[in-house]
Amino acid sequence: MRIRGTARLTAAAAAAVLLLSACGSDDGDGDAQNDQQQEQQETGAGEDDGADGDADEDGDDRSSEERIAEDEARSIEGDGLDGVWESIVDDNDIETLTISGGTVETTGPLSCPGTVSEPDSAEPVIELDCEVENTKRVRGTLELSPEGNRLYIGWDGEAWGGYIDSLIRIG
């Protein structure tokens, strides 16, 4: 019975993230297919729970619970935003995010510097200053988990909002 409850909780969480991430709209720049693929990666949409041993498109046959447990095991607790953060999504535009005081540096396809306004406030704001144009991740609000091991970025977007990145503290 516990497995059913966990599966329902996981499905509900995935549905909620899908609703939130689907709120952003395509700005007509031709990457609608890439946006859809990234949303599916970020939300796990279209993947089974791995219970029957079938691998997903990346060859990963772990269940959602196993992936979450692995992320938790790799993450470290800390105070404040300073540190090195890694995306929980494979092939994300932002692979890692390093925050030191009010400065930010990202790695991955979207590698660029940035700033954090009021890092000690209840709602610090991140702004990236990228040479490569990326309208999906320019300015966002940071939210730190109570344990200090997860960081969520709610990126500004059109009308209903933008992408949400979820990262774990690795350093």
Essential attributes:
25% strand, 171 residues, alpha+beta, disordered N terminus, 8-stranded antiparallel barrel
Return Rg in Å: 16 Å
**SS elements, strand count:** 8
Q: Report the sheet-strand fraction.
A: 15-25%
How far is the N terminus from the C terminus?
A: 37 Å
SS summary, helix count: 3
Biggest sheet strand order reads 1-2-3-4-5-6-7-8
Helices and strands in order:
Elements: H1 2-21, H2 32-43, H3 64-74, E1 83-87, E2 96-100, E3 103-107, E4 113-117, E5 125-128, E6 139-144, E7 150-155, E8 164-169
Antiparallel strand pairs: 1-2, 1-8, 2-3, 3-4, 4-5, 5-6, 6-7, 7-8
What does this structure look like?
This protein has 171 residues and is of the alpha+beta class. It is built from three helices and eight strands. The protein has helices at residues 2-21, 32-43, 64-74; strands spanning 83-87, 96-100, 103-107, 113-117, 125-128, 139-144, 150-155, 164-169. An eight-stranded antiparallel beta barrel has the order 1-2-3-4-5-6-7-8. A hairpin with a 2-residue loop joins strand 2 (96-100) and strand 3. Helix 1 packs antiparallel against helix 2 (32-43). The longest helix is centred in the first third of the chain and has 20 residues, at 2-21.
